[in-house]
Amino acid sequence: MSEPDKPREPEPAVPPLDTIDDSQRVPPPRRPAPPRPQPINAAADIPPGAIAAFGVVGLVALVLVLKWGIPKGIDWYHHQDWAWFTQWTATVADPVHAYLSAHTVGLPLTATSAFVIWQGVGIASLALSWFTGAVGARLTWTAHGASSVFMVWDASPAAGRPVAAALAVLAWTIGSLFALRGLSLRPRINIHNHNHPAR
């Protein structure tokens, strides 16, 4: 015989969730940063005798360079034929001057002043591009090179026009080794990890 159904006991009530005010929240404890490695002190690892020996050898090498190397270098410089360099410079600079002389007629600017400006802009843009790597300086250097090649091509004699333009391009590319150093056509990609917890 089954027992009569007993009244079911009420289930314990679930306490209400208490919310914590933002001012009372405690952030989780920060993990301590790993200890930094000690800097390498190479001077402490070199014996004092070796440092003194290097100093003596360096002093002797400096004396030999000042006494023998520099006079030999000056003597070698004076016995070299630098006509190729002056001819190359004239092949580029003379047509530029001729072009400016022909195309500054009627302007308040003289051909000589335009030639000085051409030289100054080239030197300044080369130096600024080399030392600062600024985009504006590099763009100025590029425009200076393109306009120089155009002027050399236009003002050179017809028979020597290709060679003169090629020498102007070579002169500009040699300068670009310094002006455009570090320039890369490879795109730079920056990856930001948004899932990394803030420290």
From TrEMBL:
The keyword Transmembrane applies. Keywords: Membrane, Transmembrane, Transmembrane helix. Residues 1-42 are annotated as: Disordered. Residues 26-38 have a biased composition (Pro residues). Residues 1-11 have a biased composition (Basic and acidic residues). The chain crosses the membrane at residues 46-66, 115-139, 159-180. This is Uncharacterized protein.
